Amino acid sequence: MLEALLPPSTERLVLYPKPVNVRWGADRLRLACESDLGLTLDPTTAVLFHNRKQDTLVLYTLDPNGDRCITKKVDRGSFLLPVRGPAEDYAVLPVSKLRSLFRA
Fold first, then answer.
1. pLDDT tens-digit profile of 80-94?
2. pTM of the model
3. Which of 65, 10, 2 is nearest to 42 (CA)?
4. Helix H segments across 1-104?
C-alpha cells in the first residue's frame, strides 16, 4: 500500500506516537519530529503520522527536492500501532515491516 510511495533511499520508518492534525504542513510535521522526538531527519528516514481515529495517515519524507507529505485514507481499524517498550519514545521499523502495520 504505502511501499510504492516511499523513496527508494528509505531504510527505516519512524511511527510518531501521538495523534496529529493531518492538515499540518511539512514544516509543522518536521518541527514535531525534531522537537518532540529529537529526530534528525535524513533521506533514509520516513515518519508516519496518524490522526486520532487512525483512519488517515500522513507519510513524511525528505528527498533531494525537499520535503514530501503524502496523505492516505484507510479503513477504520485497519491501521495497527505497534507496542513500544517502556523506554522507547517512538517505534522504529525497517521498511520491509511496513505491511505488518495493516490488518488484512
1. 988 888 888 899 999
2. 0.91
3. 10
4. 26-31
